[in-house]
Amino acid sequence: MLILLLTLELEYGDWLTVRKRFFGKNLKILLGAILVALNIGMAVFAPFLAPYDPYQQDLMHRLQPPVWSDKGTWDHLLGTDNYGRDMLSRLIHGSRISMLVGLSAMLFSGVLGSILGMLAGYLGGRTELVIMRVADAQFALPNILLAILIVASIGGSTLNLILVLGISGWVIYARVAFGLMRSFKERAFVQSVVALGARDTYIIFRHILPHMIPVLTVVSTLQVAQMILRETALSFLGLGVPPPTPTWGNMLAEGRNRLWVAPWIANYSGIAIILVVWGINMLGDGLREHFDPRAKEARK
Amino acid sequence: MEAKNNNLLLEVKDLKTYFYSETGIARAVDDVSLKLCEGETLGIVGESGCGKSVTALSIMQLIPNPPGKIVSGEIHLAGRGDLTRFTEKEMRKIRGNEISMIFQEPMTSLNPVFRIGNQISEAIELHQETTRKAVLDRTIEMLKLVGISSPEKRVRDYPHQLSGGMRQRVMIAMALSCNPRLMLADEPTTALDVTIQAQILDLMNKLKEEVGTSIVLITHNLGVIAEMAQNVSVMYAGVVVENTDVRTLFANPLHPYTVGLLTSIPRADHGAGKKRRLNTIPGIVPSLLNLPVGCRFSDRCSHVHEPCHKWEPPLAYPKNGIETDHSVRCWLHLTPPDEG
Amino acid sequence: MFGYIVRRLMFIPVSLLLVTMAVFFILRATGDPVQLYLGVESTPEQVALLEKRLHLDKPLPVQYLIFLKEVVTGDFGVSLRFDEPALPLVLSRLVATVQLVSVGMLFAVILGVLGGIACAVWKDRPIDFIISSLAVAGQSIPSFWLGIMLISIFAIDLRWLPTSGTGSWKHLILPGVTLSTFLLPNFVLLTRTNFLETMTEQFVTTAKAKGLPQRKVLFKHILRNALNPVVTFLGLQVGRLLGGSIITETIFAWPGVGRLAVGSIFQRDVPVVEATVFLLSIFVILSSLLVDIAHSLIDPRIRIR
Fold it and tell me: Alpha carbon of C3 to those of A105, C8, C10, C254, C303: distances in Å?
């Protein structure tokens, strides 16, 4: 399967180099969006798509390899895991958690961080000092450590996970929003609205915020990918959603212990993660290039 | 046509430098010929986009390829041959050594992370094999030459620690450090204050004598030309439209563009008493991708007539031109093909 | 310059205070550490003993003051798991982590910068495309998966390298490479972008006009300028590197601080957790200070008078 993917990429690669002028950045958005859409579709329609119940154990058929291997069957396309659960179904359902967690965490940290950053930038003074110092202090601590600490304290569940990830991610939004707000605050168009006597909230939300949307969109897109990766890392360490819930991180952790015996468990969960994250990253990158006012890259 | 009393140092013949892009071919330099004699200052004057900088970069063979390319033409440097035939390696021996170049924006032309002494020494080390001490001495000497006080201390400064005028002096020091025969100066004073401008120009003149370097001075400022150049080539949209010595140019400009340039210089007594608008040349410079048929200046010229739309005039001598070495590219002064 | 360093150093206590305070309260406020550590079968005597040892019998603010006092004297108490003084324990493991982190960072920086330069110099040619795509893909790969894959290929299939643990330089390779992949793609892409931008700067033309050979132009003039944002980025990533080392250490059973921390947090070995957080925070802050100093050495424009 890896080889299939690689071949696909290579073929795409040649086509890309040739048609780069016509697609360039658009291809990124296109490809990324397709992958993301596929994943969201998979997550939403999981119960209909998955051939089996992901929790259903079938100890008679434990550790079966995927269909293209000698002992594989068409019953279980991607094989089974240690408890005889169907890999394909678990992978499909796993996308639900990943998407859910990724998006929610991004929203949480995004809203929290952006508002704090905007406040710090707009009000300045002590507000700025406090908010940005806390941001810096948190930045010094490795996110994973913080996450581990919190999860170990309050236990692992989907909600807690979202909470933890949200806390780990607000800093970057705050920094970006802060910088943007500071640069926009002094601009002429803002000054003129101020001169009209508008209220602060009006100025911030009606006039400045729209200008921040492009950058924040790009950051958010890339952050979703980061969130998914972090979730899988936490799950890998045993701090994510507890088993038997199928998450890609959990599956990866299980797979790690059985590398010799059943490499497909780890492989396919890994590939699933890679594909989704890659799709999101491409989308984010494509969006960034799209919004970038410096058309140096755009015009070849 | 005869060189005044000196030898020909640089001759550019029918130079064409084009830039290839998806939107078309930009003929930045489209048949330009120049001559420079030893000890002389040749001024190239024209608006932004007329090709003067590209000409200078072509002489240095520094046109980025892609997207640009010297399509045809010859560039003869006395005693060395046709530079367009030189390999990159051979060209590197020329650059900084026999021909050097200074640019418009001294702040961005100097590397911000290296000390200025280092940057000057670099050129010296490259072309002259001497000891560390000798290089340092020479660097300090150059700084002194361009009028920077306490050069021993200044050597360790960074570009951002100097003022604009001083940076330009450093650029000049760097350019002259190896005693080049020719210095190309691309708008050297445009980014500087007027008073500093005067200083730098004086410096350049002084150094020309002392070091024995000939100068090609590129500018859009006719005042600078008047002060510095012996001969002038006026460029427009990639070609030379008029070429003569400076006095004749100011006294008897032939090409309508040159006339336009001269009359558009604001004068203190302009329209004395009455409120008058400044003179301008109507229209804008044509896009290099989309030049008018016939004479390039035809859509802005007040003397335009029939042949101007049909054929592009060559750069040639009008009836009395040969004696005064005054060539022009205009059907007003030349005979179009259909008239005898 | 000195003044700047001193000022930076003065900020350390503030950050440390914030961080340790957060950790302190989280550990105590979220469930009883004693119960969590001793488990269900504990006797009341054991509980009382432990409580006394951890000062849990006193009110929270008092506990905090005791804690602060201990911190100043460098005494974090004795590890519950290992029955050794916490601080020296963490320090000894820190050495192993620093080894790993240094190797990882070195890989990332050297390979990343070289890769980025290659992309910039041969822009739009196959090699640029390949390296850039790999870098973009690399950003999407969970590093622990990569680590597992590397073990699978190099240690299990090919048997070239050991699967885990320490010992020889060979043991450093796989963990080092895995760790470097946290940052490597970013370095490649960042270097590439900066290089391309710097290449269009005016002073590059000046350098060429002096007759400098291409190699020198590249590595002397362009590199110093292009590295600028890369160094800034590095300074911000120390925290991430540490986070990455936690995972890497888990995969490769590397006896570093990361593994120690994870185990200690799980088992509520409070002294060790506190000592770890404290030391790690200092480490991160000091490293970013070091990076800033290096940065100002590279770029004289940002030297603070």
Answer: 41, 9, 11, 39, 11
Put residue C39 in one of left, alpha, beta given phi > 0 → left and psi -120 to 50 → alpha. left
Residues C56/C28, Cβ–Cβ less than 8 Å: yes
Test C240 with A274 for CB contact under 8 angstroms. Answer: no
Q: A254 vs A200, A236, A266, CA distance in Å?
A: 53, 8, 7
Report the candidate in C63, C118, C53, C56 with the shortest Cα–Cα distance to residue C86: C53
CA–CA separation, A80 vs C100, rounded Å? 36
Q: State the complex-level ipTM.
A: 0.77
Question: Domain coordinates of chain B in residue numbers?
Answer: 264-339
Query: Which has the closest alpha carbon to B302: B272, B259, B273?
Result: B259
Length of chain B, please?
A: 340
Architecture of domain A45-299: Orthogonal Bundle (1.10)
pLDDT tens across the length of chain B (340 residues): 334 456 889 999 999 999 988 888 888 998 899 999 988 999 999 888 888 899 999 999 888 877 888 999 999 998 888 999 898 888 888 888 899 999 988 888 888 888 888 889 888 888 887 888 889 998 998 999 888 888 888 898 888 888 888 999 999 999 988 889 999 999 998 888 888 888 999 999 988 888 889 999 999 888 899 989 999 999 999 999 999 999 989 998 889 899 888 888 777 666 666 667 777 888 888 887 778 888 888 888 888 888 888 888 888 888 765 667 888 998 888 888 776 4
- Determine contact: C208 vs chain B, CB below 8 A: yes
- CA C211 to chain B, closest CA, distance in angstroms equals 4
Between CA B194 and CA A203 the distance in angstroms is: 43
Report how far residue C298's alpha carbon sits from residue C222's, in angstroms, rounded to the nearest whole number.
12
| Chain B contacts to C (CB-CB under 8 A) | 60, 62, 91-97, 100-101, 103, 105, 108-114, 122-123, 126-127, 158, 160, 171, 174
Number of neighbours of residue A211 by Cβ within 10 angstroms:
16
DSSP C85: B
Integer Cα distance of A177 and A185 in angstroms: 12
**What gap in Å lies between CA B264 and CA B278, rounded to an integer?**
7
User: Looking at this protein, which amino acid is placed at residue B336?
Assistant: P
Let me know: does C220 contact C274? Beta carbons within 8 Å. Answer: no
Q: Is the dihedral of CA A212, A136, A158, A257 positive or negative?
A: positive
C215–B contact, CB cutoff 8 A: no
Which tokens hold the place of B272?
């004395």
Q: Domain coordinates of chain A in residue numbers?
A: 45-299
| DSSP characters over B194-222 | HHHHHHHHHHHHHHHHHH--EEEEEES-H
